[in-house]
Amino acid sequence: MFTLEQIKQAYDKVKTETDFAIYIQELIDLGIHGYDTFITDGRVVYYGDTDHEVSTAKKYEQLSVAATANKERFIESLVMHEGGQTDYYTFCQQASQSGIAKCRIDIIEMTSTYLTPEGDPIVIEKIPV
């Protein structure tokens, strides 16, 4: 069973894109299948074998999520963020305003899926490793 401390130790080693691939392999070695990052409060829930889960604390006050998803607006925000034009919190604010409630990272499939509060996928990206 994995712990938040083990995850933090693995994450603290990430300094470059090459390190990210090693980080993902360490998560797999720990038995982690994926994790959900809640755009609404910054909390992360890691899940793995035998329904084991661990969760971080909330990182900021609750953001409200737009009732209707705006895929085009979200993609614009995502491209800006991936291009280094926004910080993480700004991206989360923009995502919530576009109707995104969480991001699910599937380590087995190597995908990142952005979801509405109802769990509908809006954007699915392949994670480059």
Instruction: Write the element-wise H/E pattern from the N-terminal end onward.
Output: HHEEEHHEEE
Secondary-structure arrangement, i.e. CATH architecture: 2-Layer Sandwich
| Rg, alpha carbons | 15 Å
Number of strands: 6
The backbone outline, from C-alpha atoms, is globular
The total domain count is 1
Number of helices: 4
Helix content: 25-40%
Give the helix/strand class.
alpha+beta
Q: What is the class in the CATH system?
A: Alpha Beta
Q: State the strand order across the main sheet.
A: 3-2-1-4-5-6
Instruction: State the CATH superfamily name.
Output: YdfO-like
Low-confidence stretches: none
Strand content: 15-25%
What does this structure look like?
This protein has 129 residues and is α+β, with helices and mostly antiparallel strands. The chain has one domain (4-126): YdfO-like (YdfO-like fold), CATH 3.30.1810. It has helices spanning 4-11, 17-30, 71-82, 88-97; strands spanning 32-38, 44-48, 53-55, 102-106, 111-115, 121-126. The chain has a six-stranded antiparallel β-sheet. The protein starts with a helix and ends with a strand. The model has no long low-confidence stretch (mean pLDDT 93).
